[in-house]
Amino acid sequence: MLNFIYLYLFVAIICCKEIMSNASDECNCEDVCSPIVSFDELLNNRHDKLRWCDMVEPLAKRSSPRYPTRDFYSMDSDIVIPFEDFSENRPEVLVCHDYKGNYLDDKFINGGVKWEEYRFYNWSVVDIFCYFSHNLVTIPTLQYLNAAHRNGVKVIGTFIVENEDGRKALHDMLVDREQTEKVATSLVEIAKRLSFEGWLLNVEVYVNPEKLHLLKHFVQYLTEKTHKEIKDGRTIWYDSVSAITGGLLWQNELNHVNEEFFDLCDGIFTNYNWSVNHLERTSKLIDEKYSSRRKDVFFGIDVFGRGQVAGYRTNETLSKSAAFQFSTAIFAPGWTSETINTKVGFDDHHSSEKFKTRFNEVFLTRNDNFWSSLYTYFYIFGPKSLPFVTNFCIGSGKKLYRMGKEVKGNWFNLKAQAFQPSMPSSNGYFTHYYEDSFNGGSCLSIDSNELTRIFTCELPCKEGLIFSFTTKKESPENDFEVHLNALNTATNRGLKIVCKKEAKHANDISSLKSEDVRSLNIFLANKGYPPTPELINSWETQYFLLKFNKSSSENIIVTDIGVKKIHRGKVLLGQIAFYSAIDFESDSIRVKNIDL
């Protein structure tokens, strides 16, 4: 009885702290992330813009890359997604985020209230996220930094010189080698202090041929210093000026005009007006001179359609570059939101809740359809470390919920975005649902009665796993199951495990009884993890203890997580959670050992 009281007092304290914290988490316009707009500010930066540096989350580990089949949603029968042998030459995906000039509601450290604003959440296929604006130095915002890092994605800022102001800044930089090194050092210090991984360099002005050697030295010095000072550091050159004449000559390929810049950095982001001929010439050059650097060529695709077929036909353009195993740079995926106004279908005032709700619905549908069409060309990733807990929130809400209870109205804060599914949400399988949530502002609506994969992963099972899922069901008859694929990496033997209320087959695991759940939650609370009651505000949480034979548990990982509802009717998935069972005294809980 004392254990029971202790547990629920702990839950109450945790909930109160979170509610109080979020109640005061209002937008303070002084607490903003901002760019550096002048050369003098860059060189004499006193880091007053960087006071939020301690709030940046580290880059999370994620699973090994896997290449999906066209049936990537299905976990039924023998359809699997084999792990790819890791290759240094695997094509990568860079997303260049240019949305209405950026620094919108995402600039606020404590978030804003425009909940329907554009949110990027398709992290599972992205290697590098570039935050872009037309300011001299674009520093990624804290909101996007944390959302990307939580999902295991590297982040780079942008150094751009363009127009008359850019010419002046470049003139001031290309004075001598010492000056270029000062600029490079300042850029590295900013990235290092804010824990992001590097820079996109975009020089779109004429460069005096007599100063070209200084620009090349800048690129080389920045790249070398980034590698030395920043783990996983990257410097990417945008295909712009000629390394031979200094003229502004977009090549749309890698060739003798720009390859000297390619030699000095980690990769090149080509302009968008390429054709199959550009791909063929670049491929020939790579084979002849850069056989280990094919992945370092990112062929650009502007989703707005500059130079290529794009929009909902982006997959057609992508298929061409993917055939050559080049990497991809997707520019302005915010097209899925930015072009909505003419498509919403009614003229309600933009400030009305009806308009915002409809806008959000259209955005989610457009965004999911866009990304679903691209997934078969990309490698996919998922979680790798324990604990792994996600509520599926994408960083905003009509309301803010804690333990299924509303605590706040409209909010937007990508810092609160959870780890997102490996598979793209899609009508007919699962979708992000904004009318209810367990924690955050949204959850997943499970739309299919088929067994549907939501994560690929590499979750270690040493000494067992504590696993839970939280659902809200339209009817008690709507049984819900979570399916796990486990793999013994030593023997390459796999096993399907079904977590459900009552075990009926050999590989089924039954949810734990209430007295056992209390023991688990006390253990988790003592480890510092907020426990979740079995039933709270109409949300039900089922707990499972997965124990493997000790002789094999060292080599066992969970590789896939899938969901299945048994009957028609709405089922909301509010949270899934995996914790290590190391140090948990489980002798009092009767569960069968899993032999794998």
From TrEMBL:
The keyword Signal applies. GO terms for molecular function: mannosyl-glycoprotein endo-beta-N-acetylglucosaminidase activity. It comes from the Eukaryota. Keywords: Signal. Transmembrane segments: none annotated. Residues 103-399 form the Cytosolic endo-beta-N-acetylglucosaminidase TIM barrel domain. Pfam families: Glyco_hydro_85 (PF03644). InterPro entries: ENGase (IPR032979), TIM_ENGase (IPR005201). Residues 1-23 form the signal peptide. One of its GO terms (cellular component) is cytosol. This is Cytosolic endo-beta-N-acetylglucosaminidase TIM barrel domain-containing protein.
